[in-house]
Specification:
It is a single chain. The protein has 643 residues and is α/β, with parallel strands linked by helices. Among the domains are: 209 residues, Tetratricopeptide repeat domain (Serine Threonine Protein Phosphatase 5, Tetratricopeptide repeat, Alpha Horseshoe); 164 residues, 3-Layer(aba) Sandwich (Rossmann fold), CATH 3.40.50. It contains 25 helices and 15 strands. A hairpin with a 4-residue loop joins β11 and β12. The longest helix is centred in the middle third of the chain and has 27 residues. The protein starts with 31 loop residues before the first helix and ends with a strand.
Length: 643
């Protein structure tokens, strides 16, 4: 049962929930109690704390029946964290006390258990102010006891106990005590060879320095934290499979805090010093984008092609929206260099507006979306007008994060001119410039694999216009067509083994969900999971003579408000080894989809770039009375290469 020991999670953030998870190598031949524990962890990953709580309680009961005391404690500890996340605060403190004082807990297990219980007490104090005093006192006491019990024989656990205790002192404004404990935690991390602890405490030293308004020290500390994170790519990817909060709650904030400091440095600087600060901020964002995708797909090999982004992209303007708690900054890269523009909005307001905009876009019988489309334009696009207006620009490339991944920038509306952004300039999104290889497509010599489902299968409704859509693609290009019963998973894979394709076009139901392992495209006989699709199509990564230029996924959808699912959409081309992807944020009217796809390929054949081909196709629908609402045309996103 040693594999089920309650371990300090690799990336359990000091300000977020986490679970004690099974190691990835221990998921075979599980007992009923272990299976229930895994179900609880999965529910946490889906953001379903009530289901997690039920599963953990079941695991605790089954473990007791199996005579596994350690597993019972493990499940009970996770249950308290899930209860807090679910808002079921009553009785949690009493149960935490019972676990902390339980008899028979092995000496090598108790320090780690106490750290976990203390973390839950911190979470309770943050979520329920009425319990802040009592829960906070428990946390402080248990962290101190854990550090004492761990001693020199378990310096890794002592590092976490001291570091998290330092966070409590920082929150209380006791900076000297916080710094002393954090430095001791760093020393323990070094002695126990625990870089996954060290990066946290370097970031914590940065927060202490910020609290004391010493931004020079803060910058140095956050730079070191990010440097360590970059060396932990494989470990963090593995942790993502076990701890759904691993990256989002522990690592992502560190990148953004460094970016925030660099942007403030740029605000105070001029000339080359300002450009250097902006370049480092942009490159840090690029590193964050790569790390996010590695975390989502659990693939440490999903790395950047270059170490830094290109200084400029000929013919294009690149926009990096940086959403911070108290402000929103746009880093704009154009032929003149890098510029930072400040939007008159805070991060929470922007995120809320983006979510409401995304939701209203799909209501095609109303224009309720329009005020939000215009407000977002004023916040995100108007400040960059100097880089966009009056210049010949081939495309605007947006590198979004968080909630901004879930919205189509082309549907933002310029109220002054009465036009959508897509009517002014071609728009593409990118997971990060370091992650893509933009090159023009050669439509005359490309072979296409076109696959689609028009019939109602596996509980999904029919999409009648798919046959027309696939027939049009087949008529335009040489290649292979798989429709309805012909589009089976094994046939799709066999087609890839038989010959190379430059374009893969799939018109079928599909969903991007919060976890890559749950995202899929519907084949006739089964769900083709996105990871499997990436593996099949990704074999083209090694091809030099005929690389996969475009992966088109028509009729797929991404859950509104699910930033995690949108991350999968952003990375689908990269995961599949394609230079670009054409995908939909939501399921579109099949007639409108067929019309847009036909015009897109017509323009592509005529020599237009991918971004311009999509722009012309969308403008055609805007000019059509039946499809002018953005709910019909703006769901289509061009991702990665725009050329």
């Amino acid at each position: 049962m040693s594999a089920l020991a309650l371990a300090i999670p690799l990336a359990a953030g000091a300000d977020a929930a986490s679970t004690c998870a099974l190691a990835p190598t221990d998921v075979e031949a599980l007992s009923p109690a272990e299976e229930a524990l895994v179900r609880g962890n999965d529910a946490v990953g889906r953001g379903e704390p009530d289901q997690a709580l039920a599963a953990y309680r079941e695991s605790e009961r089954l473990a007791a029946e199996e005579g596994s005391a350690r597993l019972s404690w493990l499940a009970a500890a996770n249950a308290q964290r899930a209860a807090v996340a679910a808002g079921a605060f009553a009785g949690v403190e009493a149960r935490l006390d019972a676990l902390a004082s339980a008899e028979g807990v092995p000496a090598d297990f108790r320090p780690t258990l106490l750290v976990h219980l203390a973390r839950t007490a911190v979470d309770l104090a943050e979520r329920d102010p009425t319990r802040a005093g009592s829960a906070g006192a428990r946390a402080a006491r248990w962290f101190e006891e854990a550090a004492s019990l761990a001693g020199a024989r378990d310096q890794r656990t002592r590092s976490f106990a001291r570091g998290y205790s330092g966070a409590l002192y920082l929150a209380a404004g006791r900076n000297d005590d916080a710094r002393t404990l954090t430095r001791r935690a760093l020393l323990d991390a070094a002695r126990s060879d625990s870089p996954d602890a060290a990066y946290r405490w370097h970031a914590q030293l940065g927060r202490i320095a910020r609290a004391e308004r010493d931004e020079r020290k803060a910058l140095a500390a956050f730079r070191e934290s990010v440097r360590i994170v970059d060396t932990l790519r494989a470990e963090l990817a593995r942790a993502a499979a076990a701890d759904a909060f691993a990256f989002r709650d522990a690592v992502e904030p560190i990148y953004l805090e460094l970016v925030d400091l660099l942007l403030r440095d740029a605000d105070r600087s001029e000339g080359e010093a300002q450009q250097a600060a902006l370049r480092e901020a942009r490159d840090t964002l690029e590193a964050l984008k790569a790390a996010e995708l590695r975390d989502y797909y659990g693939d440490p090999c999903l790395a950047a092609q270059r170490e830094t982004a290109a200084e400029s992209v000929p013919g294009a303007v690149v926009l990096y929206p940086v959403v911070l708690p108290e402000r929103v900054v746009m880093i704009v890269s154009d032929a003149e260099g890098l510029t930072a523009y400040h939007a008159p909005v805070d991060g929470a307001t922007l995120v809320d507006t983006a979510r409401r905009f995304r939701k209203l876009l799909t209501k095609r019988t109303t224009r309720q979306y329009l005020p939000l489309a215009q407000q977002l334009y004023e916040w995100l696009i108007r400040p960059a007008a100097a880089s966009l207006d009056g210049r010949k620009i081939d495309a605007l490339i947006v590198v979004p994060g968080g909630a901004l991944r879930t919205i189509p920038f082309g549907a933002l509306h310029d109220a002054r001119l009465g036009v959508y952004l897509i009517e002014k300039v071609a728009v593409a999104t990118a997971p990060g410039l370091t992650l893509i290889d933009p090159r023009p497509i050669d439509p005359e010599n490309v072979r296409v694999l076109a696959a689609g489902i028009s019939e109602a299968v596996q509980g999904y409704p029919e999409i009648p216009s798919v046959r027309e859509e696939i027939a049009d693609v087949d008529a335009r290009f040489e290649g292979v067509t798989l429709v309805d019963g012909g589009f089976r998973a094994d046939r799709f894979e066999e087609a890839f083994q038989s010959q190379p394709f430059g374009i893969v076009h799939i018109a079928s139901h599909g969903e991007f969900r919060g976890e890559a392992s749950e995202s899929f495209v519907l084949a006739y006989d089964e769900k083709l999971m996105m990871n499997d699709l990436g593996d099949i199509v990704g074999r083209t990564r090694l091809r030099k003579e005929a690389p996969l230029e475009l992966l088109a996924l028509s009729a797929c959808q991404t859950a509104a408000g699910d930033d995690r699912a949108a991350l999968g959409l952003a990375g689908v081309a990269l995961r599949a080894g394609a230079r670009s992807a054409l995908a939909t944020l939501w399921s579109v009217s099949d007639e409108a989809s067929a019309a847009l796809v036909q015009r897109f390929y017509e323009e592509l054949q005529g020599g237009a770039s991918r971004a311009e081909a999509l722009r012309r196709a969308q403008r055609e629908l805007i000019g059509t009375r039946a499809y002018r609402h953005p709910g019909y045309w703006s769901a289509f996103l061009l991702i990665s290469s725009w050329l």
